[in-house]
Design a protein that fits this description.
The chain has 106 residues and is an alpha+beta fold. 54% of the residues lie in helices and 17% in strands. It is rod-shaped, with a radius of gyration of 20 Å.
Length: 106
Amino acid sequence: MKDLGSLMKQAQEMQEKLQAAQAKLAAAEIEGVSGGDMVRVTLTGAGALTRLHIDESLLAPGESEILADLIIAAHADARRKLEAAQAETMRDIAGPLADLPGMPKF
């Protein structure tokens, strides 16, 4: 029974680490850029878009298609960075368990 108690304690500690990591990720802000920094978007850890910066030169008539493409690219850049940060956090929490067969790969 001693092993079961130890296992339960480890599970509780892992649960606490997971909750702390989720809170940290939720509070994070990730920035994505495109067009040589002409468009910048900021996402929260939950993926919500909170800020958008557009260089004024892109607001000229006839630039709407380029602007739309740059916004989409900046958002995609931010999403990739956010997903990488989430995966790294989960790998850190899983520790040596991340290498066990059958465990999800982050």
